[in-house]
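FIELD: query
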Amino acid sequence: MGRFLAAIGLITILGVRGHVRAFESGDVSPHSKSAALDLVLPTDNDALFSGDGAAFYQYVERNYKGEKSTPWEGGQYGFVRDPIDTAGGLVYTRFHEGIDIRPVHRDANGEPLDEVRAIAAGRVVHANLVPGYSNYGKYIVIEHRWDGSSYYSLYGHLSSIHVHPGDSVTRGQAIAVMGYTGVGINRERAHLHLEFDLMFSHQFEAWHDAFFRNNPNHNGIYNGLNLAGLDVARLYLALHKNPSLTIAEFLSGEETFYKVTLPKARNFELPKLYPWMLAGNRNRQASWEVSFASSGVPLKIEPSDKQVTQPELSYVRKTSINYSYLTRDIVSGHGAAAQLTGYGAQLMRLVIWPD
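FIELD: result
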């Protein structure tokens, strides 16, 4: 199996089934701070690299204005589901934080057989074995370390799980079997839901208890509310073009859709978890201004002289479409009138919890 590779002396080549393979001049720990961002696809389905979206992504079932369809585009990352008509045109209002990879192996009864593999070396930090405890059904979270920061791959809707929290895994190691556990999925639409995430805060459980007391949290800090998913399909494709790409470089191409000014807080973890987000002079700032993509992924943290006691929306890209449709209901309003929603304000409290 592949491993994390030393940054020095690394030579990468394109391997079989579209994987980025590597040869190393020396092995390093799976938690090395200078390991290469070397990802492998999690199943045998490699149609992503040939551009065959219909073969790679699992379709969704759509009923729009009485017309039923099964578009594969709904299995992509981003705002790809639940279309509505607005004054600004057709808008897809439901955000899909990962990608849905369709099976390529089934038995005579149609049961999916695809082996699910770790996309990179790391450590299993969570395994949810009870389908009803999450919309993901049975799922696994693996922590990966690059350049001193932790990133998380999430594998959802599994049939069976072969690893346990605390296990170290190598790149390409079998960890589960694809399934269709979770809400709203049947055998025909069996798939692997894959995410590649940043984490907001290790204080998530206290925050969840404060704001969602009546909604049990069975998954600790690995609850999906605490994980911000990147466009993992685009990351795979970008790594094919540039195997030395870092996550910071990848996210530098994302558009800032809104900014929020946050009061200073001793438990503001983002700059500690992802130091590459920090920009500007950090001395004597009164607050922090955090830039976000429309997906909710944080992109940049800058010091601000503005005095605030609560999170405040400080910028949003102007559009005539209601911002709640474009920001996962974190910002509402349209045009020059915009504000954080109740949920948006709660989410920003998570980022600085407890202040």
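FIELD: remark
Confidence is low (pLDDT under 50) at residues 1-34.
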